[in-house]
Amino acid sequence: MNKVVVGLSGGVDSSVAAATLHHQGYQVIGLTLWLMKGKGQCCSEGMVDAAFICEQLGIPHHIVDIREVFQENIVNYLISGYEAGVTPLPCSQCNRTVKFGPMLEYAKANLDSEKIATGHYARIEYNDELERYQLFTARDRQKDQSYFLYDLTQEMLAGTIFPLGDLTKSETRKIAAEFNLKTASKPESQDLCLIEAHGSMQKFLAKYLSEKEGEIVDESGKVLGKHQGIHNYTIGQRKGLGIAHSEALYVIKLDPVMNRVIVGNRSSGDRSECTIQRTNWVSIPQPTTPIHSQVRVRYRSQPVPVTVIPLTESRVKLIFAEPQFSITPGQAAVFYDEEMLLGGGIIEKQATS
Predict the structure, then answer these.
(1) Is there a domain that residue 207 lies in?
(2) pTM score of the predicted model
(3) Which are the catalytic amino acids?
(4) Disulfide check for 211: which of 17, 63, 94, 228 has CB 3.0–4.6 Å away?
């Protein structure tokens, strides 16, 4: 069957994914997820642009109301995380529980399609020897989004196409112009959909979390200032601390029990190891012995050498070849072997430097 359901956000990337597959002869159906109310490519503006693209291409367009799923899996996930003193990464959680899973399920159940496609910059290949789908970085390393896809299952990878995986962003724009797509010159989204909708993460959190004054202290416990809620801070933060000091200070720990923000110099924020929970192995079977790989601890961070030590079925320990700054609980640590994404999980807690 040559039918594919394309997730359309209303941006140029997903528009080109749909147009490219349509041009290649696929029977394309557009699908937009209604995540929440407000501005941003995931919401009302995006739905209008997605509908326009479908009209341009002459393909059907479906809108699925998934706001309750988004509220439960993303909004509540963020709120509980910030309350616990961690900095959650919503995008990987959203991709697995809100986007790819529900999209594939809807496509199979309602649109008679076994395949979905998105505008993500990443590549999928099937390894016959391992009998496993493997995930690779995009050719355009500046646009690579594999980091946010580490939590996808084998079933999701089997049912997914990434038409932009071998393209650069400039090539995507060029194709959009060639197809005369309405979104060809649409500005790229720079923020999370929640930030686009509310203006900032602080404004979003203010809707759910009340101010709770506490102390900003140094590593010895000396009080340096006050804060209005630990949810307004993240590990590694330097600006906006509201305290004066003779040297640059960074947030090195958040203590939800004592309601304290702990700060220190940059070297005090270095960590030589950490533990990872909710680990998902993508391109290789779950290892039973330590492996050497590279790890990215933030989306824009450079891969660094690491030893991955299995602890339990879903937890591993990372030992960095060199101490790393700003290891942030709640963020993702994603393991690579050059271009191949091996797996990843959520940073659970910090170890001493």
Answers:
(1) no
(2) 0.93
(3) 94, 193
(4) 228
